[in-house]
Amino acid sequence: MGNDISGEVRDRGTVVQVHQVHGDILLHKGAPRRGWITSTRVRLVAQAIMAALLVCGEQYALSVSADTTVPAGENVRPFGIDEDVIARLVADKLNMCVEEAVPVPVNCPQRHTAPIRGTVAWGLAGDPRDGMRIVWHDGRVIASGSAIMTLWYHGGDDFEVIPVRFTTNVRWRGQETSVEDVGPIISGGPGALEHGRGLEPTREVIREAIRFKFTECMIEEVSPMDGRCPHATGAPFHRNVRWNLHGDPAGNLDIATDQEFGLVRVTAGYSMTAFFRDDGIHDGPLPQFSLLSGTYVATLVPTRNGGAVVLNLAHQP
Fold this sequence. Notes:
Number of helices: 3
Structural class: alpha+beta
Largest sheet: 5 strands, antiparallel
Shape: elongated
């Protein structure tokens, strides 16, 4: 909402034009002529204008205070806005954010507050442009959405999948438009953006993706395996290990889909055995084997070709 005020000085006084007010409004009189309004009427009109402006100001303040983190937007699309360009600029900024090696990067939406020794390694899964909502508000472009970020820390032993809600507010400047800051949406977010709409993998696709991930994990020759594979916290480290998988870890699945972030989470049971061989490092006899079994939670992200990628297999204690 705006009030357009223009003015000029005539021989009969200063004339001010206010948006949505037709005609001239005399704020102070010039040389007296017959037919012009009196000074009393000038004061009354000026007071009326001030009252109207105050009311408009109060309504504007109320409208601003009622805005949530992500405004609903306006009905009229500003001329020249290219929404694909905005989405690409936001995605580029998020790809820059995952290059940061700190738990809370500046001007980025991801956060990790748990104690972390040393550096971290962020990653971005899927395409943050999926489900991104772009609106315009008060002459600015607001892009909001969800991203799936991953985090390595503790030397690669610990791995987390961190869904992130993000928003940015930029002024459209054509080819000069840039996105410098993408912040987190802490609360009152954009609602279900359906990040993965139309990308739900079938049960068989999920099964195959889980089996493939377990096969990848079993190739490792260390125990415990890295953070993307099942491992028990605090287990002693051993090299020269051979892993065996018992049964089908994808035979009986409990599948839950998160439409906002486009994630698929699968809960199931599994059993693996690590056989230890002499690595020339440890003194004394090695255990013959170590059994790792119980429940795991697999987090998957759908792909455009109808497939799915397992981000991690988390052992549940």
